[in-house]
Structures are given as structure tokens and as C-alpha cells.
Write a structure and sequence with these properties.
Strand order of the largest sheet: 6-4-3-7-8
Number of helices: 3
CATH superfamily: PEBP-like
Number of strands: 8
CATH class: Alpha Beta
Length: 170
């Protein structure tokens, strides 16, 4: 699983291949949210204290040639990272996810807890990363596919990425 977690720990899932070196030169995807601010607290509505589900996200700067988009939400903790949401095979023409929803046609993979869907963050002092990946192909796995398999597939297909990071849960 460590190799598959490269996508979450590095933020872009890039290895040492020539193709990976080329990916590093791409402009990053811009990620924003009407409810989240980079380096600010994650509103408790989007945590295990709330009932809203995932926060709304928007992105721009997806490069030409993108075949699908994926989102990974994790906490990158030094005491044991946790993946709270994986959504993949998002249509590349889509540029946002509404609050508490999944884009039409997108697929949710398993989280660290083993279930598909948004697993609200609970570790109040952790930083949470909302990372959007542009992919050169669809992930093409079923709903609830294993976290390891899903993250590896995202890492292998990443051509650009961007991130919004919250500082802790309010």
C-alpha cells in the first residue's frame, strides 16, 4: 500500500520516470471553494461533527488532453495518514463538485475505513488536503474499489494537480 499512497503523500503521485519529470513542468491546477480557505480551519459542518458531507470544490487550469479528473481528500498525518474521500472518473469538462454530492458519472473509491463515499474528518488538529488530479485516462474501477488499487491508478495517470489545504477542524 505504501507505493499506492505516493499519490496522496506527494500530492501528485509522480515517480522517477521521464514522463513523471515532464509532468513536474506543468502548471498546477487551481483549487478553491466558496466554503474553505487555504490554510484556514475546516468548518465543522464538513467534519464528523456535521451532517453536510463533502464541501463544495472548484478547479481550473486542467490541461488539454485530460481524460478524467479525480479528487482525493486526506490528512497526511505523521501519526498515520488517513484518506477521507476518493472520487474518480469525473468528466474533464466538469470544474466543480457541489456540497454533499458527487458529479454525475463519477465513481467513489474506498477510504481508509474501507467504505466508499465521503468519510468526514474527525482528527481536530490535523491538516486536511483537498487535491484535484487531472488524468490522462479514466481510472475505470468499480465503486468501492480498494484504496490501494485506486490510488495507484490515479498516480499512474496524473498529468497535473492542485490542492487546497485546511489547517485543522474548527
Amino acid at each position: 500500500m505504501a507505493a499506492a499512497l505516493v499519490v496522496v503523500s506527494s500530492g501528485c503521485g509522480l515517480g522517477s520516470s521521464t514522463a513523471s519529470a515532464e509532468r513536474l513542468q506543468l502548471e498546477p491546477i487551481s483549487v478553491s471553494s466558496p466554503q474553505l480557505r487555504d490554510s484556514a480551519a475546516l468548518p465543522s459542518d464538513y467534519s464528523c461533527k456535521g451532517t453536510v458531507g463533502n464541501p463544495p470544490l472548484r478547479w481550473s487550469g486542467v490541461p488539454n488532453g485530460t481524460k478524467s479528473v479525480a479528487i482525493v481528500v486526506d490528512n497526511n498525518s505523521r501519526t498515520g495518514g488517513e484518506v477521507n474521500w476518493v472520487v474518480f472518473d469525473i468528466d474533464p469538462r466538469t470544474n466543480e463538485v457541489a456540497e454533499g454530492s458527487v458529479p454525475v458519472g463519477a465513481v467513489e473509491g474506498s477510504t481508509t475505513g474501507g467504505k466508499a463515499g465521503y468519510a468526514p474528518p474527525c482528527r481536530a488538529q490535523e491538516n486536511y488536503r483537498f487535491t484535484v488530479y487531472a488524468l490522462n485516462a479514466k481510472v475505470a474501477l468499480a465503486k468501492g474499489a480498494s484504496l490501494e488499487m485506486t490510488l495507484k491508478s490515479i498516480a499512474d495517470k496524473t498529468i497535473a494537480w492542485g490542492r487546497l489545504t485546511t489547517a485543522h477542524i474548527e
